User: What shape does this take?
Amino acid sequence: MSAALKPIHIDEFKIVIKSITDAEIALLGKQIHNSIDRLERSNFIMQALLQKAKGQEVKEAFDEEEFDTGEQDEEDLKVYSDSIRENEIVLDNLHKRVEALDDESLNRDITPPTKPPNVKPALKKVEVDADNDIIDSNAPNSVFL
Assistant: This one.
């Protein structure tokens, strides 16, 4: 699986995932989704900081106190812009990997790790005897003094 963790071309990734187990596909799917979530959050924050630094209105709120950026110059704005652009490239690559994992999961006839199952779990039916003809210490109407 270590080969799947190195940055490899998507075609090589598709070949590698054919040789890993179903559990490793599920784990890899979770890791990729975690990476996607973090990159999207980073881009959101950098975009907001970029807008704020340019004096533009920030459309969505974020915790500004968490990011004490102080004075920002043109170099900072360039770093934000470059980082957002680079993250978008990585995100595109990660989305392609998600598609590849989904395709491999379908080929194996397993639930794709990136999609929750469509079936809702059945609720467990609990039967409780509400009349006090027997002693049941777990019944909701039991009181011990």
Observations:
- Residues 2 and 104 are 18 Å apart (CA to CA).
- Residues 115-126 have pLDDT under 50 and may be disordered.
